[in-house]
Amino acid sequence: MNDPAPQVIKMYAAREEIYPRETSGRYARLRWLCVWLTQLAFYCTPWMQWNGRQALLFDLAARKFYIFGLVLWPQDFIYLAALLIICAYLLFLATAVAGRVWCGFACPQTVYTEIFLWIERKIEGKRSARMALDRRPMSPAKFGKKSAKHLAWGAVALWTGFTFVGYFTPIKLLGNEVLTLSFGPWEWFWVLFYSLATYGNAGWLREQVCKYMCPYARFQSSMFDRDTLIITYDGERGEPRAPLSKRDEVNGGSCIDCSLCVQVCPTGIDIRKGLQYECIGCAACVDACNGVMDKIGQPRGLIRYSTERALMMHYTPTEIRQRTLRPRVKIYAGILALIVAAVGVALWLRTPLKLDVIRDRGAMGREVEEGMIENVYRLQIMNTTEQAHTYRIRVGGLATLSQVTPEEVRVEGTETKAYPIRLRTAHGAGQPGSNKIEIELTAVDQPSLHVKEHAVFFVPR
């Protein structure tokens, strides 16, 4: 008896290539507006100048973060953390109100996929032409089109990687290194890393990033409720589906089963089956369906932004807007407002001068000429402004406490300076052991810029 042929069971379905159809309409224009605004901001911001330096620069080597007129140091990391928290709450608020509107219009994955798809359409043609090209065997014409497309993708990806690294290394210096072919190994690594990430994600992975790699798609439902705006299909109005030629025979609904809503979807889903986690809320299906409705003389809105409750209760647009300010949204907005206010007040009250006092432990209090007791300190002065200042040093806390070293020190803008000082007091002015003193630093040209630190003066027993 012959053994049966082995069967191969595939645990994962092979990916089906998605060829999104180009669409036009209100939301397509809005998506391209977001593309232009985000990319103008991304590509142009590193070239902006502020006080003679790059306006936005996260200089990791120097451990300084320049954000226009604000200079943050590692000690100010809490402000960067607060900025990330604010961005997160903005995303939560937007999701609670309008679902995955961020994903559909402003997410970098969506934006660069739109750009790469536009390049693909310009070189390979419309959806049907691209599908036919991929089915044909390799030929000089096909090789030429594919090569041109990937070269264009590579150019955009390289420029994107270069620009991204320009936020961490001064971009003018980076540009000069490109022209002189003097890139360092780490610069080569990061530029190529982000270029390959852009090329791979937007050119090859596309919808797979949204469907399988992005964690946001997995937990977005926790921020949804029945009043969250989502892309919806009005089944009550659209069903039963029927081709236009047979609608009268079967008393069909508004949906003529043209499948354009599926053809334009960048993730390849059928919105008529209900909301799915793959839906990124780009509203391409809304534009496609509205165009069909216009052609067959039906009202727009068979597929539209709406809510589950609005579909069930037949709310008007005004009633949908009235339910926007519900408890969940108010809580997100309230928390966001409190965080923004707290960060704003903290930045307003922030003193752009920092002082650390370090006593020389190798030389405890010692007796010098005329019976005076001397302690040595090192002042670590950090001027976080971009202007140079001369600071006057004042000490107090002990009778007859005085400085032997000069009382003024100059610190350049965004500089940290170690400045040694020697303090003396008369014998018997303090108790044996540790005595509390204070050291104050005040800018000569700006008296409001001052800081005070406590220290210990040691008197030998």
TrEMBL record:
UniProt keyword annotations, A-Z: 4Fe-4S, Electron transport, Iron, Iron-sulfur, Membrane, Metal-binding, Transmembrane, Transmembrane helix, Transport
Stored InterPro entries: 4Fe4S_Fe-S-bd, 4Fe4S_Fe_S_CS, Cyt_c_oxidase_cbb3_FixG, Electron_Trans/Redox, FixG_C, Ig-like_fold
GO molecular function: 4 iron, 4 sulfur cluster binding; metal ion binding
A Pfam family per the record: FixG_C
Superkingdom to which the source organism belongs: Bacteria
The keyword Membrane belongs to this UniProt entry's keyword annotation: yes
Gene3D superfamilies: 3.30.70.20, Immunoglobulins
Entry's Gene Ontology cellular component terms: plasma membrane
PROSITE patterns associated with the record: 4FE4S_FER_1, 4FE4S_FER_2
Transmembrane segments: 30-50, 77-98, 151-168, 188-205, 331-349
Domain 4Fe-4S ferredoxin-type: 246-274
SUPFAM superfamilies referenced in this protein's UniProt entry, alphabetically: 4Fe-4S ferredoxins
Name this polypeptide is given: Cytochrome c oxidase accessory protein CcoG
Organism per entry: Rugamonas rivuli
